[in-house]
Sequence to fold (100 residues):
Amino acid sequence: MAETLDLTSLLRNALSSEKSLASRHIVLYASFGVVKGRTTLAFARRPDDGSDPLQSEILELIEVTVEHYSSHLPTASFDQLYIRLSDVRAFAFGTLKGQG
Fold:
């Protein structure tokens, strides 16, 4: 649980410190695969007062692609995806390079 809170704080600080990050892509390395998408400003604007711990453990992404680690599952695309932060092992922000 502490790791999830640390990740939540780190993500929220990164998103709120520079508004342009909300329009940039995020890559999440989750327990089930690689998730590529964009964060929403709603995550950064949520109060971090502990009033709803479940809400702070879920991240909403838009324009999402999921590349499953299992080779038998195809890559999937979604308009929106909600992911538990406890499933996230690492993340990266930035503009995707080599994508055409």
Summary: Residues 2-94 form a domain with the SH3 type barrels. fold (CATH 2.30.30.100). Residues 2-17 form the longest helix (16 residues). The radius of gyration is 13 Å.
